[in-house]
């Protein structure tokens, strides 16, 4: 009789343990899920055609650019994914000679060796142009108005950003290299 009571208790303990594991594993499914956002530091084109520092955000089915400067806040863009028409990407490079010269004064004469050995040191960037439609202010217009914005990110971030944009819009980023 004692053996049977002991076996019953072990079975009950195992059942409770399984139930606790099931509740523990199912608990995250009941909790509200956070909205994940991807953020990239880059540069966005302003009204004069210059690239200014901005933050590029992809969240909740939207593409956003948020300028860092307070006087540029009116240029922020918030585009729903369904309004993006097409995207193109191209690669540019900037010569970073001034950074090397500045390093020579900051660090010392040894950094001049880098300038002498590699005078055409470059930084590579990817520029992505995004065409999107906005609702027309004219109720009689048959076609929606279209706008274009451009962003510039370092090449290390460009592959991930392009992949996220393609997943967001179900469109392919056209590469123009």
TrEMBL record:
Going by the entry's taxonomy, the superkingdom of the source organism is recorded as Bacteria
Q: What is this protein called?
A: Uncharacterized protein
């Amino acid at each position: 009789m004692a053996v049977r009571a002991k076996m019953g208790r072990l079975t009950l303990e195992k059942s409770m343990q399984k139930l606790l594991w099931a509740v523990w594993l199912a608990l995250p499914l009941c909790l509200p899920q956070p909205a994940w956002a991807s953020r990239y530091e880059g540069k966005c084109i302003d009204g004069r055609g210059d690239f200014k520092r901005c933050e590029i955000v992809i969240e909740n089915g939207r593409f956003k650019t948020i300028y860092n400067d307070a006087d540029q806040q009116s240029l922020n863009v918030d585009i729903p994914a369904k309004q993006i028409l097409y995207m193109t990407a191209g690669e540019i490079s900037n010569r970073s000679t001034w950074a090397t010269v500045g390093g020579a004064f900051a660090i010392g004469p040894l950094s001049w060796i880098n300038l002498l050995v590699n005078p055409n040191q470059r930084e590579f960037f990817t520029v992505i142009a995004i065409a999107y439609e906005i609702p027309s202010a004219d109720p009689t217009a048959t076609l929606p108005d279209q706008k274009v914005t451009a962003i510039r990110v370092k090449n290390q971030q460009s592959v991930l950003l392009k992949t996220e944009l393609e997943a967001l819009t179900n469109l392919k980023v056209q590469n123009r290299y």
